[in-house]
Amino acid sequence: MAELVKKCPECGGINLNWNKDRGEIICKDCGLVIEEKMVDFSQEWREFDSEDGERRRRSGAPMTYTQYDQGLGTEVGQKADLLRLEGRDRNKFFRLRKWQSRISTAIERNLKLALAELKRVSSYLKLPKSVEEESARIYTLAVQRGLVRGRSMESVVAGALYAACRRHDVPRTLDELSEASGIEKKEIGRTYRFVTRELGITILPSNPADYIARFASALKLSAETQSKSIEILEKAQKAELTSGRGPTGIAAAALYVAALMHGEKRTQREVADVAGVTEVTIRNRYKELLDELKLDKELKKKKGKKRK
DNA sequence: AAGACGAAAGTGGTTGA
DNA sequence: TCAACAACTTTCGTCTT
């Protein structure tokens, strides 16, 4: 590779995620896609489940899910074909075409609208192209399985985006999705859970560390503080403080402690706001961090004061 | 006066009978 | 389907800087 980008030209962040599958370098701070021109030798899409994977590898025309007909544009026959058919074939032809038009017009019309909405929200959140593609694919599958029925199109779009972000390790909070899409938080959560369950998509619980970079840059914290908080997070994982807790709360608390230790104090409220949790949650996690890990002493040398 | 801390009560979601 | 439960929030009073 020629020159490797070291810093994000947009925000100066140093947390770059080099995604070889996609040939992209993504800034984890602001979501900017820095380089898309690297040659991609890997397969065109990720595999959802093994059977699809077998069939899809490197074959056929380039396919994209961000266009409503997936770039294929297949139709069942034109009039010219009719002349060459007779009898049973002819009946079959009509049946197929009727069927096709009934299904595909409905689905395609829906997709066209939905993908426009998806792009809007995605660009608002500055999500990388790969996430956009992934969510478009999820949405397409959802429509084909009739999962949108009884739900608003927008909420399914938001759910698909949320899922795609998590799969690509650039998680956004439900609050952010909610703000960008105008859908209620709990509604997004509901459809997200429903869609992923129905489609059999497994998503690992998101790692608190994935939030650090973005929160830190929102708070204008130094790179040292960032890596310190990552370090704290790792210890916390070992001490089993992380399971069952909301990842954003843990990330926020780790960041808060790290900021204190580096003399870059932020108020609990500031941290709470960017992380989308309350001060109370930060306090609880913070307290756990203090007495489970022995961070007290490191803190004490900043403030050589009293014990409790 | 603002921030940190903690108690108490409330909310929405998960789990297990 | 219902109740118990854990995590998180809201609210509010008190202490610290």
Overview of this protein structure:
The protein is mainly alpha-helical. Helix content is 56%, strand content 4%. α8 packs across α10 (247-261) and α11 (268-275) crosses α12 (279-292). The longest helix is centred in the middle third of the chain and has 38 residues, at 87-124. Residues 35-62 and 301-308 have low confidence and may be disordered. The chain binds a DNA duplex (17 and 17 nucleotides) through residues 186, 189, 244-246, 249, 267-269, 277-281, 283-284, 287.
Total beta-strand segments: 3
Mean pLDDT: 74
Provide a count of the helices.
13
Would you state the CATH class of the largest domain? Mainly Alpha
SSE arrangement:
Layout (H helix, E strand, L loop, with lengths): L15 E4 L4 E4 L5 E3 L14 H7 L22 H4 L4 H38 L4 H16 L8 H15 L6 H8 L3 H15 L9 H10 L4 H16 L8 H15 L6 H8 L3 H14 L3 H5 L8
Helix pairs in contact: 3-4, 3-5, 4-5, 5-6, 5-7, 6-7, 8-9, 8-10, 9-10, 10-11, 10-12, 11-12
The structure holds a DNA duplex (17 and 17 nucleotides).
Give a summary of the structure in a few sentences.
With 308 residues, the chain is mostly helical.
Quickly list its features.
308 residues, mainly alpha, N-terminal domain of TfIIb, Cyclin A, domain 1, 3-stranded antiparallel beta sheet, 56% helix, disordered C terminus, DNA-binding
